[in-house]
């Protein structure tokens, strides 16, 4: 299993800015132990990167509203069908899918209730719904905000927290209890959940937005986040990052929450 974890690490480091690669590799680790029966829908597949690097088998369908991102996703090999569409009007038959997963997507959608209802509709009896989302620890554990609070600059801290959520395009860095309520109200039973990405890991992600600017320029100019994806080129950052990556990332103070839930088959909404 450690070999799989390291493979995930390197595949992400070779293709994403280090701070984003760190988060995606950590999330990818968790999927390795989850039974995900087919047919499978990736809700918010984007450019297909996460799916292609995380799963050794192909998933059935990926949907995303960003047409140009889907064009990039089609060049990857781990998804059979790509569909351009919105989460609140999923163009699929009721009870068709056995698994729907949405990795770091739902926090970017303003109105979530129709999305949860649509996922429930397209899942078959006892279908699995997996999501990863930021929780309120994301906001309150940002290192610059914590420093400003310690200095008594509470208004500045709040402004920084709002700014960081804005550049992260977060509408819903909400309490875990709020995410639980959304799932349960839509007719899902939570099988298992845990927080991950503690303060130290979040700090790497936070400051990576600044130190990752060269990768942004590389993407804009050359179309690639990492211009030279070789171990020798990434040796310094990989040695530093790997020791954090191999640590247990589960923590009550974790900035993100992983939910595994299932559709309640005998619910009146079925």
Secondary structure elements and their pairing?
Blueprint: H1 2-13, H2 18-31, E1 40-43, H3 49-54, E2 59-64, H4 67-73, E3 79-84, E4 97-103, H5 113-122, E5 123-134, H6 136-140, H7 143-150, H8 154-167, H9 176-185, E6 188-196, H10 199-211, H11 213-222, H12 235-245, E7 256-263
Helix pairs in contact: 1-2, 2-10, 2-12, 7-8
List keywords for this structure.
alpha/beta; Rossmann fold; 7 strands
Write a brief structural summary.
The chain is an alpha/beta fold and 270 residues long. It is 44% helix and 19% strand.
Descriptive overview:
The protein is an alpha/beta fold and 270 residues long. The protein has 2 domains: 2-137 and 170-263, Vaccinia Virus protein VP39 (Rossmann fold); 138-169, no CATH class. Helix content is 44%, strand content 19%. A 7-stranded mixed beta sheet has the order 3-2-1-4-5-7-6. Helix 1 packs antiparallel against helix 2 (18-31), helix 2 packs across helix 10 and helix 7 (143-150) runs antiparallel to helix 8 (154-167). The termini are far apart.
